[in-house]
Design brief:
About 90% of the residues lie in helices and about 0% in strands. The chain is mainly alpha-helical and about 120 residues long. InterPro entries: Phasin.
Length: about 120
């Protein structure tokens, strides 16, 4: 009769697999948010450019050219604000990811220490 070997996977889960899964989930969530922010920004910039191109096609005289130039100035101001807002959003996402990563690392360390302690007490 062969004696079966039993392996307790709880410490392995607590020290390695659990934290790895949590970090992967955090990374995927961050990537999705960042990708969405970039797509939204690109769509906004493309729409603004296409709108301006269409408006340029409507210029028929000097007065129309003046109005177009004035609209370009307003667009430039609006785009500067948009770029600033988009950059702030990306910075905020980076900060959130960094903070959550730190919390996850601290939690993982605490769980690993507890699992190691439990494992040592069983020995």
């Amino acid at each position: 009769m062969m004696k079966s070997f039993s392996f307790d996977t709880k410490p392995f889960e607590a020290m390695l697999l659990g934290p790895a899964r949590a970090y992967a989930a955090l990374s995927i969530d961050y990537t999705e948010k960042l990708f969405t922010a970039q797509l939204d920004a690109a769509k906004g910039y493309a729409e603004a450019g296409l709108t301006q191109a269409r408006e340029l096609l409507d210029v028929r005289d000097a007065d129309g050219l003046r109005r177009y130039a004035e609209a370009q100035q307003q667009l430039a101001k609006g785009m500067a604000e948009r770029v600033k807002g988009d950059a702030e959003k990306v910075v905020s996402l980076h900060q959130e990811f960094f903070q959550e990563s730190q919390k996850l690392a601290q939690s993982s360390l605490s769980q690993a220490q507890q699992a190691a302690s439990e494992l040592a007490s069983k020995s």
